[in-house]
Amino acid sequence: PPLARALDDFPGEVEGDLPFRKNDVVEIIGKPFPEWWEGQVNGRRGIFPACLVKEVKSENEIEEAAEAHRG
């Protein structure tokens, strides 16, 4: 499944949201709306704002992004 890296924290606002922390890797399950995607992280499933993640092509890309963020 496609993966995305969280660009910022999302605490979730209502039931059904998927809370995550910055740099979490989110497994994208679907894109029911252009601005809200469905995903899974840390054993939880829900929807989240697409603007808070960056879709990545591979685990290597996730590691590179994390390294760049750490400086």
What's a quick, concise take on this entry?
With 71 residues, the protein is α+β, with helices and mostly antiparallel strands. It is 17% helix and 37% strand. It starts with a strand and ends with a helix.
Amount of beta strand:
35-45%
Shape: globular
Euclidean distance between termini CA atoms:
28 Å
The ordered H/E elements are EEEEEH
Please summarize the sheet with the most strands: 5 strands, antiparallel
In total, the number of strands is 5
- Which oligomerization state do the chains in this entry correspond to? single chain
Number of helices: 1
Which blocks of ≥5 consecutive residues have pLDDT under 50? Answer: none
Q: What share of residues is helical?
A: 10-25%
Mean pLDDT, to the nearest integer, reads 89
Q: Could you walk me through the main structural features you see in this protein, from its secondary elements to its overall organization?
A:
17% of the residues lie in helices and 37% in strands. It is an alpha+beta fold and 71 residues long. It has a five-stranded antiparallel beta sheet with strand order 4-3-2-1-5, with helices on one face. A hairpin with a 5-residue loop joins strand 2 (25-30) and strand 3. The N and C termini lie far apart (28 Å).
